[in-house]
Design goal:
The chain is α/β, with parallel strands linked by helices. The chain is 32% helix and 22% strand. It contains ten helices and 15 strands. The strands form four sheets. A nine-stranded mixed β-sheet has the order 7-6-10-11-3-12-13-14-15. Residues 208-213 and 358-379 have low confidence and may be disordered.
Length: 379
Amino acid sequence: MHDYDVKPPRNPRNKGNVNDFEVYTPDWIDLTKVIPYSQPWLWDKVIPFQTCTLLAGYGGIGKSTFLMFLAAHVTNGIKFNCCGEDVLFSQGSVILLSAEDREDTHILPNLLAVNANISQIHLIKSTIGTISKKVKFLELDKEIHILENKIIQLGNVKLIIIDPISYFTGETKDHVQVEVANFIQQLNDLARKYNLAIILSKHLRKKSGKQTVSSLVDEVGGSAAWVNTPRQSFAFMRHPTDKEKILMFHLKVNIAKQTTTAFCYTIEEDQIISNGIPIKATKLVWADHLENIGIEEAVNKETFEQSKLCQAEEIIYQHLKINGVTSIEKLRDVCKQVSISQRTCQRAYLHLEKEVAISRAKGNCKTHLELVDGWDGAK
């Protein structure tokens, strides 16, 4: 045994009646001996150190490509621009637990496509029985010491990615809140002990085309503890009107400010060369600005359309206020610059004109639109 090996904890499930004689004593915390400090971050206000972050999205939406991007930039120390802001991670090693993607056709090509330092990425999929030679996924509810041993051995781990987490929970009941919370708390304790970040990837429930979603939090499979126990939770959705765009929202925030904008990226095809042979890969490309859309708008089509309509009305009003009479073509161009469609722009303008017509018919005071200097409608 190496001097860095941590012995596995006793497993009550294999010890018969251990719970009949085990006694738990309170772990009181003396706050007078606690030293307060600011929350440390791998990615400021996005991925925290010393705790878990949950990423949830439908299968095939591009979460794994996002995770490979993170792993690459933790290992290569290269600055990148995300939606108009430069980001630089603390450089170190990454431990990757992956259950669904093949290492030779997917994981490695996609890591190489974004210049990952492969020697600093340590991949594990399964464990092998010493006697039976049976292969099974790592069961973190009772084999978390395997992760800890690797962290100690490597010495500079900054990030652990578990994709998806549901394959590595062992006998933890996915729908039982206290079991899920205790399971995640073990990971939180590990992250805090070694000052690293842990990302848990999870699928959203599949839904039919006729189903609507009232709350995306409720669509995360299993217990609500999957969302509530991690200190940061994000959801991934396709843009309501541009399916090439993938949006990343704050799903639930515990240690940062809730936002009404979304990170945005696309996934592009790429290739690497291995032994002179081109190999297909994919890579993440960030948008140059945040998308001005909230999570409820992205989930609910009616809410999204109403939000865009209100936004278009305000843009038209402000433009007319500054520039006076303007052609409808010009107004469409102005709206297009903030991703508002021509149809929505037209609807917004007609709605404003209707307000004016109703006001005049009733002999009311002038509307805010009529008060614009030189208002006579768009020509």
